[in-house]
Amino acid sequence: MKENVHSDVKHIVRLEHIVKTYRQGKVDVHAVNGVSLEIENGDFAVLCGPSGSGKTSILNLIGGLDVPSSGKVWVDEIDLSSLDNTALSEVRKNRIGFVFQAYNLIPVMTAFENAEFVLNLQGVSEDECRERVMQTLKAVGLEGLEHRRPDEMSGGQQQRVAIARAIVTKPAIVLADEPTANVDSHTAEALLDLMQKLNREQGITFLFSTHDQRVIDRARRIIHINDGKISADEGYHS
Fold first, then answer.
1. pLDDT tens figures, 13-70
2. Rounded to an integer, what distance in angstroms lies between the CA atom of residue 185 and that of residue 214?
3. What is the pTM of this model?
4. Which residues are registered as beta bridge partners of 23?
5. Is 25 helix (H, G, I), strand (E, B) or coil?
6. For residue 116, what are the CA distances in angstroms to 51, 64, 157?
7. 3-state secondary structure of 16
8. Percentage of the chain modeled with pLDDT above 90
9. 11-233: CATH class
10. In which region does residue 214 sit, left (phi positive, over 0), alpha (psi from -120 to 50) or beta (all else)?
11. I want to staple 97 with a disulfide (CB 3.0 to 4.6 A). Which of 117, 171, 200, 230 is the partner?
């Protein structure tokens, strides 16, 4: 289990006895079965396990994309179970960054426009928006490519745009679901280098869902998920 060396650090995420049940025919299936978990400020952590283990379901519950059948989820000290859909959308917009394996970029928008999209929803001024987007695109290695649309970029570049979009809002946590699944090995390593640098230099908290060993090898904390439960939490390692 994880050593309690960060007990004075704010918990960005806290799950308390989370259960998520789906009905399949006449049978109830527990995708998540009694999970309690804390993710701390500055974590670079991985939920790992085989397909169907429940890791993506846990990520979706933390991201407010799904609601638990029972138990509670806190993100940045906000109890998600107490929120209506509008308030939940506000938490996702302001406190959570998402990186998906399919990128989920808006195809008719440029890299700049994709990255600034949520800032516009937040009502950030045009000048501040431009400054933050340009700084972020530079940080993810896309300086000079801000006017390209997704179909004019490689898969790795598109994922960098997705990372920029996730971090430009300065979220409490970035949730990354299989972020290396659709890129080649070289690009995957470069993306992981980038996310480690953002974690180390900017203190951005990352939580991954993956079965990619390359991602697992980079993590400081490895949380194993099997049959909807945490089977091991390997804690921090250098």
1. 999 999 999 888 888 888 999 999 999 999 999 999 988 899 999 999 999 999 999 9
2. 9
3. 0.88
4. 28
5. coil
6. 33, 22, 16
7. strand
8. 68
9. alpha beta
10. alpha
11. 171
